[in-house]
Design a protein that fits this description.
With 230 residues, the chain is of the alpha+beta class. It has one domain (2-227). Helices cover 53% and strands 13% of the residues. It contains eight helices and seven strands; from the N terminus they run H-H-H-E-E-E-E-H-H-E-E-H-H-E-H. The strands form three sheets. Strands 1-4-7 form a three-stranded mixed sheet. Strands 2-3 form a two-stranded antiparallel ribbon. A two-stranded antiparallel ribbon has the order 5-6. Helix 1 packs antiparallel against helix 3 and helix 3 runs antiparallel to helix 4. The N and C termini lie far apart (48 Å).
Length: 230
């Protein structure tokens, strides 16, 4: 079961994401991101802590179910559109384990439910999720040995556009909800039927292939909450 836990990003991308969080911390400290608390219902540093927790939690996959035995492709590094992703390595793995990633799914889903409840954004939130999920599903690519992949910047940009159209006041929360849940639905949940044919030892919802899009969605939501609300 040690193969369940692996970092879904290359070292370079992980360092870049960490640097982005440090930059956000500096902007919050010097007061440039002032509206995060009122827009997201979170203290700015609490929002930053959640993003850090998401990055660290990307290492943890919680097993849900084991799919029937299939041929497993053993790989260490998979490149998608020039971006290297780390995939788990397994030998004679008895079928694919369907798991859920803590940083890329559990934390974003919990925060999305909080934002939906706090601001009563059920209608607008569902629209944002549906829009992002529709386009992400069309862009999703099955990758043998890894799972489902989507272009890194598509979910956050789609979520930001949808959120600004639906509500300028709640653009931040809607961008987070639409982007995070939308990519999980459009990329992972809607493609569960093809996972058995990919030969991946672990198929993680919110893990390799989709985590980067979910993470950047959170960053953009924080920026939107600070810059365009009010």
């Amino acid at each position: 079961m040690t193969h369940l836990h692996y970092v879904p990003l290359s070292a370079g991308i992980a360092v870049l994401f960490f640097a982005i969080l440090v930059a956000l911390a500096i902007l919050i400290q010097i007061g440039l991101l002032r509206r995060v608390s009122s827009a997201l219902g979170l203290d700015p540093f609490a929002a930053l802590f959640i993003l850090f927790a998401s990055l660290l939690g990307s290492y943890i996959n919680l097993p849900l179910v084991r799919l029937p035995d299939e041929r497993v492709v053993s790989r260490e590094v998979v490149e998608i559109m020039g971006v290297p992703f780390l995939a788990p390595v397994a030998v004679d793995w008895p079928g694919t384990v369907l798991a859920i990633n803590v940083g890329g799914a559990v934390i974003p889903i919990m925060l999305s439910l909080y934002l939906l409840t706090r601001y009563r954004l059920w209608g607008q939130g569902l629209i944002a999720i549906a829009v992002v999920a529709f386009f992400v599903h069309r862009m999703a690519t099955p990758v043998p040995g890894l799972g489902i992949s989507v272009p890194t910047f598509a979910p956050p940009l789609l979520a930001a556009i949808a959120a600004l159209i639906l509500s300028r006041r709640y653009a931040g929360p809607l961008a987070y909800i639409g982007g995070c849940v939308g990519v999980l639905v459009g990329a992972d949940l809607s493609n569960l039927g093809v996972l058995r044919s990919l030969g991946a030892p672990v198929a993680s919802i919110g893990g390799a292939g989709t985590f980067d899009g979910v993470f950047l969605t959170g960053v953009i939501a924080v920026l939107l909450a600070s810059l365009v609300t009010g």
